[in-house]
Write a structure and sequence with these properties.
About 30% of the residues lie in helices and about 20% in strands. By secondary structure, the protein is of the alpha+beta class. It has a single domain (about 1-115), classed as Gcn5-related N-acetyltransferase (GNAT) (Aminopeptidase).
């Protein structure tokens, strides 16, 4: 599912990231269907640095959120977010933050349906330096 969420990422790197997940600083959840087939995932971590659009620290940050296309619109994503919210509150945080690419309007709509509000839009820049 991580490869479906990030199709341009190297599969080996995605696997290494998943195996190195810091459960002391985050949570990784898997939603399964009645046949125990994985149909969704959510990963969240605590961020103590500044998180765009937030007012507190630490903040729980939704690092990954994916639902199999055949199961979207059935409450799977909402259930994953509810579980992340419960974990967030248990960590003493008052905010859950997330992000999505500017052109990922389906993700924007899913976030809004789960009660997220857009706080700002950011374009990142990079300038490689020689020597």
């Amino acid at each position: 599912m991580r490869a479906e969420l990030w199709p341009d990422a190297d599969a080996g790197e995605l696997r290494a990231e998943a195996l190195a997940w810091d459960t002391g600083n985050g949570i990784a959840l898997i939603a399964v269907d009645l046949g125990d087939r994985a149909i969704g995932l959510a990963e969240a971590s605590l961020r103590r640095d500044y998180v765009n659009g937030t007012e507190s620290s630490p903040v729980a940050f939704l690092e990954a959120w994916y639902v199999d296309p055949g199961h979207r619109g059935r409450g799977v994503g909402r259930a994953l977010i509810a579980a992340v919210e419960d974990w967030t509150r248990a960590q003493g945080c008052s905010e859950l933050a997330s992000d999505a690419l500017l052109d990922n309007t389906a993700s924007h709509a899913a976030h809004a349906a789960c009660g997220f509000e857009e706080t700002e839009r950011v374009v990142y820049f990079r300038k490689p330096l020689q020597g």
